[in-house]
Amino acid sequence: MLQHPLITAADYCDRKHLLSHISFLSGQLQRAELLLQNASRTMVSDEELARFDPLLAQGHIDRLESSLAQVALLREVELGRSRALEEEVNRLRLERISLIERVDALDSKMATLEAENKQMTNALSSAQLEVERLRLEETSLHRRLTVIDQLQEDGHRYQGLNVIVAPPREANGRQECTKSMDELQMQETLQRISLLVDMLMEPICIAFDAGVVWITETQLHRASLQIQNATVPGYSNDAFGLQTSVEGNYPHGDVDDDTLSPAVMGVEAFSEAQLRNELKVARERCRVAEQQRERMKCLLQEEQKRTEDMAKEQYQQLQQVHEQMVHERQHIMESLVREVEEKMRNAFRDGRLYEKRLREEKLQKRRVSASHSNGGAGFAQQRRAGKLPQGASMGLEVEKQLTAGSRSSSDSTGGAAAGGLVFFSFSANHQNNKPNEEEGKKT
């Protein structure tokens, strides 16, 4: 039995030559069968069959057996490769399943991120509404604080209230508690009424005092004007004084008038300075509120921009991952389809080669059985008697040369192919020359 520890590229080349030689032999055998089936009479006699050399046939059979052994070894190697490829396909299938699961997980994660983004957008809109509400509350509180400051300038709101400390109540002093509670409620009501009277009557009294002062000063001013008109004859200032008092809407007349008293001018200057200070404070508060509003607006815009950028970046990353997974899935599917097609082609080719080998074995067995049954005895008798024709002796010499050449090159498939070609060409030439010999015998 032949042993082949390693199979190289040269072995694959020899396998190709062997397959081509086997295909050629099968074609020649089919051609010979067709010729035998179409022949109307026997083309080869017992004498011609006696030329068959068993040693040459045995050499051909040995070469074919070695070739079949090489084919079997190659088949085992191919089976091993097919098993490895099947394992690789299974591994790739598992990877594909894991990648599909990963894509599904990423899709679900993308859906959750989109939901979170929507929730964050809703939260941002609600935060904007809350900021607007807080701004309105801040404005209202600012107004209330302004009013409270104005009230505190006139006096604090608890001015005139007397705190009365109640004695500790006894265990069975329910009536005393109720009496003290009624007294406290009555005192609280009286204090509230007095506070309201003070708050309402104080501005009224101030207004009355201001009116009396204005009337008095107006009368004094008119009296002084009349005195001035009396001292300067032929000149009247009634219209000018009336215009000053009416257009300026000022109870004391013109501010720049030298007839005003220093006390009145000092009061007016103090009130003007106080109003200017209040105006400055109000402007400063408005400026601070405007700066706060601008800062909140900038913060809101930055937060919106950051949220939008983050959402866009997450969307781009998810889109890139999705495209990459789709491309990898398509590449894996294409590679699997190519591998399956290649395996199907290899299986089809191996099946055809196996069928050819079976047909060749059947033909070889049929030929060997026919040659041994028909021409063995006649060939031995003619060789003993030495009555072989000239063509037969030439055929034996050629067969001896071929046998020697085939034995010397039994390991190379090229020599086997050449011997097979010469053998079949010689048999074909002999079959073509046989009708000419028969015609010569008849003549």
In short:
This protein has 443 residues and is mainly alpha-helical. The chain has helices at residues 9-38, 46-49, 54-154, 174-231, 238-247, 262-385, 390-408, 413-442.
Task: Indicate the multimeric state.
Answer: single chain
- What is the approximate shape? rod-shaped
Ranges where pLDDT stays below 50 over 5 or more residues in a row are: 231-258, 387-396, 402-443
Provide the succession of SSEs: HHHHHHHH
Query: Helix fraction?
Result: over 70%
Number of strands: 0
Gyration radius, in Å: 65 Å
Most strands sheet: none
> What fraction strand?
under 5%
Q: Kindly report the average pLDDT value.
A: 71
Helices, by number, come to: 8
CA distance, first residue to last residue: 55 Å
- Class derived from helix and strand content: mainly alpha
Any overview of this molecule?
There is one protein chain. With 443 residues, this protein is mainly α. The protein has a domain at 15-37 and 55-153 and 173-225 and 268-348. 85% of the residues lie in helices and 0% in strands. The protein contains eight helices and no strands. The longest helix has 124 residues, at 262-385. The protein is rod-shaped and about 180 Å long. The protein starts with 8 loop residues before the first helix and ends with a helix.
